[in-house]
Write a structure and sequence with these properties.
Layout lengths: L1 E6 L3 H8 L4 H10 L2 E5 L2 E6 L1 H21 L4 H13 L4 E2 L15 E2 L4 H12 L2 E5 L6 H15 L4 E6 L15 H19 L2 H9 L3 E5 L11 E5 L7 H8 L7 E6 L13 H9 L5 E5 L9 H19 L1
Parallel strand pairs: 6-10, 6-11, 7-8, 7-9, 9-10
Antiparallel strand pairs: 1-3, 2-3, 4-5
Helix pairs in contact: 2-4, 3-4, 4-5, 5-6, 6-7, 9-10
């Protein structure tokens, strides 16, 4: 057996992390099968290398959640333990009854980080999920994967893809083509994800039959969508009234997934982002899943992490000045 020592930032962090009467620590110890002793703001863990690796990941994830929300719930602890132990759920986007290698355009989408695995679990367990994270963390890709998986399994009958066309403004109506052609440039990331998981002809057929629908955000007003997965991408570029309107489109048997990067808001200056507002308003509402992804969840080229870090470092220097 080997030892792992985790030094916490403060006694206050320790109190929140341990839980009332150390209930969080007991659940971690019993679930992982490690020896765990806490003294002040230091945690001592004993176990095999594999178990210590899991324990380190669990505490790292919990500390990240605690820094963002200022508190931890038993559900947080349970979810992160499941994610670390099971590695998250695969999203089966292949047609039912086929194997990954045999699927025609379908595939199994597997979360590649603990944060992504937690995201998938929260989407499965909640009817409304808000996911915030930088570029390359799989926010959109995994949301589409979840939608395709639920459509394939028959749990929903429709996928609705929504994205605010901020750059087009009021000129959207003057662009050539039908609605799909007008908003195609703004929904390209969603199309790319769909075409990666399904054959192009299948995507086209589903769109022709309104099983997959693309809708500009402004066209969602007045609708109620039943048995559907409704994905709002680039949610940071909605206004507060737009976000309220969108979130109230949910009908019976539906799921809503909102993704966005609150550091990349393209709204006019002084206009509050609907996503930022929704996170603040809804973070304590029961049944709503809130997920934060960060640079550790970036699964694009490794250079993306370095680029984002360079920009964040520069932003930090400017604030100090």
């Amino acid at each position: 057996m080997t030892d792992l020592v985790i030094q916490l930032d403060s006694r206050d962090e320790a109190v929140q992390l341990f839980g009332t009467r150390d209930r969080h620590l007991r659940e971690i110890r019993e679930t992982l099968g490690v020896q765990l002793v806490a003294r002040g703001d230091v945690i001592h863990v004993k176990g095999t290398e594999e178990l210590l690796g899991r324990a380190e990941r669990v505490f790292e994830q919990l500390r990240q959640l605690l820094r963002r929300h200022g508190q931890l719930t038993s559900e947080n602890v349970h979810t992160i333990l499941e994610v670390v132990l099971q590695g998250g759920d695969n999203l089966e986007t292949a047609p039912t009854g086929t194997k990954p290698a045999e699927s025609a355009g379908g595939r199994f989408v597997k979360p590649r980080t603990d944060g992504q695995a937690r995201y998938v679990r929260i989407m499965r367990d909640h009817d409304l999920t808000l996911c915030i994270g930088p570029a390359g963390t799989g926010k959109t890709y995994l949301a589409v994967g979840m939608a395709v998986s639920l459509l394939r399994s028959g749990d929903v009958k429709k996928i609705v893809l929504v994205r605010p066309a901020v750059e087009a403004g009021e000129r959207l109506g003057f662009l050539p083509g039908d609605i799909a052609a007008k908003v195609n440039p703004y929904l390209r990331p969603l199309f790319d994800a769909l075409n990666d998981m399904m054959e192009h002809e299948a995507v086209k057929r589903y769109m022709d039959n309104d099983i997959i629908e693309i809708v500009p955000l402004a066209y969602m007003r007045g609708r109620t969508l039943n048995q559907a997965v409704i994905i709002l991408d680039e949610g940071q570029n909605t206004t507060v009234p737009q976000m309220k309107m969108f979130l109230t489109r949910m009908g019976e048997g539906s799921k809503i997934i909102v993704t966005g990067d609150i550091t990349q808001v393209d709204l006019p200056r002084q206009t509050r982002s609907g996503l930022t507002d929704a996170v603040a308003r809804l973070k304590d509402v029961q049944g709503i899943g809130l997920v934060y992804l960060d640079e550790k969840d970036i699964v694009r080229h490794p250079m993306v992490q370095r680029v984002l870090k360079a920009y964040e470092d520069e932003k930090g220097r400017r604030k100090k000045e």
